[in-house]
Design brief:
By secondary structure, the protein is mostly beta strands. The chain has a single domain, classed as 6 Propeller (Neuraminidase), CATH 2.120.10. It has two helices and 21 strands. The longest helix is centred in the first third of the chain and has 5 residues. The radius of gyration is 18 Å and the shape is globular.
Length: 316
């Protein structure tokens, strides 16, 4: 999916997006330039996690993790591929190929990866969570207790949070109203589903409704740090940050930011898929592979890459 554009090739600016401030690029690099050919030449980056001075990256076309130094140096010794040891079934399901996002449990030093949607019964799908220990050895797998009607518009973002000693997973729906089609592309219905661990299950216990004023046509990733929440949109090439209530599953109106455009105001970050807080005023974003076709040529310079951005002063 690429950012929505008008006939002039400029990003749509409805709903206040044109007035939003731009994120400031600090540094960026092609992922392949950092790790070489060890993961192949097709790196559909979909999620990123900042941990211990390095970035962990998942791709929705690869069954393993990629690690790169936070310095984004091709000479860093920690750069490479991590085989998380997942045993996949003999199926052509997209959910069995790669991951949409990943999260870290700071209480137990466990990791979680997210598969977008798997069929559980006719016309009903559920996202799958795979859990790993501190050494990224698989410890369990379970579906999120939330039905989806569209296999291609499932859960795109994942985050782990702790409240009063209890752990929760936040799963971000790709489409507005957690739907596909025209309804899913209609802004104002951003939803994050909340799950609590119940034995080997993840039980649905609530919903975070993103602001109705948010002009996003889709949602690709979520990250939480010190009570602040960030939500990324690929189609809108934008980032929203806000405050997550400490007592209720609610957020404030927050602040909207555009990813940088070119000198003509055209979208160049057309494939942003994963986001993670790095500090109180920096986020890291990874970009998917641009689709084929001349209309996407302008987007290839930033695709299959990792980007570090500064959030301008006055952020929420």
């Amino acid at each position: 999916m690429t950012a929505s554009t008008n006939k002039a090739g400029k990003a749509k600016t409805k709903g206040g997006l044109s007035a939003a401030r731009e994120l400031r690029l600090v540094k960026e690099a092609k992922i392949r330039e950092l790790i070489g050919d060890v993961a192949g030449d097709r790196l559909e980056a979909s999620g990123v996690l900042y941990r211990d001075g390095a970035f962990l990256i998942v791709c929705d076309n690869l069954p393993f993790l990629i690690r790169v130094s936070s310095e984004l140096s091709p000479k860093a010794p920690e750069n490479g591929v991590i085989n998380a040891g997942r045993k996949t079934k003999n199926t052509k399901s997209k959910a069995q190929v790669g991951y949409e996002d990943l999260a870290h449990d700071t209480l137990h030093d466990h990791y979680f990866t997210l598969s977008e949607a798997e069929p559980v019964k006719p016309k009903v799908f559920r996202a799958r969570i795979q859990e790993y220990d501190a050494k990224l050895r698989p410890t369990g797998s379970a579906h999120l207790d939330f039905d989806l009607a569209d296999a291609n518009k499932g859960m795109e973002g994942l985050e782990w949070v702790e409240r009063s000693g209890k752990e929760y997973l936040l799963a971000l729906c790709e489409g507005n109203q957690c739907a596909g089609g025209k309804k899913g592309r209609t802004p104002g219905g951003g939803r994050i589903q909340v799950f609590r661990r119940g034995g080997k299950r993840w039980i649905h216990i609530g919903t975070i409704r993103l602001p109705k004023s948010l002009p996003f046509e889709d949602y690709s990733s979520v990250s939480v740090r010190d009570g602040r929440i960030a939500v990324l949109s690929q189609a809108s090439s934008a980032l929203w940050t806000g405050r997550l209530s400490t007592k209720k599953w609610q957020v404030d109106e927050g602040t909207l930011y555009r990813l940088p455009t070119d000198s003509k105001g055209r979208t160049v970050y057309g494939n942003p898929e994963g986001v993670c807080w790095v500090s109180s005023d920096h986020v890291v974003i990874v970009s998917d592979r641009a689709k084929a076709g001349a209309r996407n040529d302008r987007l290839r310079a930033k695709d299959q890459s990792i980007h570090l951005f500064l959030i301008p002063n006055g952020n929420s």
